[in-house]
Amino acid sequence: GEYPRRLAEAKKMPKDIAEEIEKLAGLRNILVHRYLKVRREMLYDAAKNTVNEIINRFMEWVKEIDP
User: Fold this and answer.
1) DSSP one-letter code for 10
2) Has the keyword Hydrolase been applied to this entry (predicted)?
3) Do 53 and 19 meet the contact criterion of CB atoms below 8 Å apart?
């Protein structure tokens, strides 16, 4: 989470992309530290939705940079 936030603050990455990446870091923390008993279905849905959001927004951002 820290680096995407820094990139967004430096205007090197859109804030919404940085926020989505931070969500992945939060998901990683749940898995690594076993904060909760995680159901596989919940994990799959959360990862898929977050990754899809990041990929879609990243592609939009790239098109803004180089249409």
Assistant:
1) T
2) yes
3) no
d(CA 13, CA 33): 28
How many residues comprise the chain?
67
The dihedral of CA 32, 25, 38, 41: what is its sign? negative
Task: List the domain boundaries for the chain.
Answer: 2-65
Give residue-wise pLDDT tens across range 6-40.
Answer: 989 999 889 988 888 888 887 777 777 776 677 77
Give the residue from 47, 56, 43 showing the smallest Cα distance to 23: 47
Non-local CB neighbours of 16 within 8 Å, separated by 6+ positions: 57
pLDDT at 2 over 80: yes
CB 23 within 8 A of CB 51: no
